[in-house]
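Re: [ENG-882] Designed sequences occasionally contain unexpected residues at chain ends

Forwarding the minimal case from QA. Structure tokens:
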């Protein structure tokens, strides 16, 4: 099984939204993906309960059968729509993909 973890920092003021408001919209978009992409085994999106310089604005935990399933997810048209939005609101992104035996 492959785990896919992503942490984001949002830009302030995009489309007149606060970072938190942009994160909420982004969260909703991400949470809609499992209904469209069968390769997603698990998907959890979280917003922080506190703020700080080292705190991410939004976190994604997801799992996939293997690297091929992750690639199918990343190339899926519904995921690409989410990425298009992300490119407008994301200031920073960190990713960690790892295999669990």
């Amino acid at each position: 099984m492959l785990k896919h973890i992503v942490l984001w920092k949002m830009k302030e003021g995009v489309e007149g939204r606060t970072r938190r408001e942009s994160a909420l919209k982004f969260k909703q978009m991400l949470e809609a993906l499992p209904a469209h992409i069968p390769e997603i085994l698990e998907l959890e999106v979280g917003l922080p309960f506190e703020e700080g310089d080292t705190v991410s604005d939004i976190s994604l935990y997801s799992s996939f059968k293997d690297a091929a399933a992750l690639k199918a997810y990343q190339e899926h048209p519904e995921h690409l729509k989410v990425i298009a939005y992300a490119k407008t609101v994301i200031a920073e992104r960190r990713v960690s993909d790892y295999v669990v035996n």
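QA comment: On inspection the terminal residues look reasonable. The radius of gyration is 14 Å. Proposing we downgrade this to a documentation issue.
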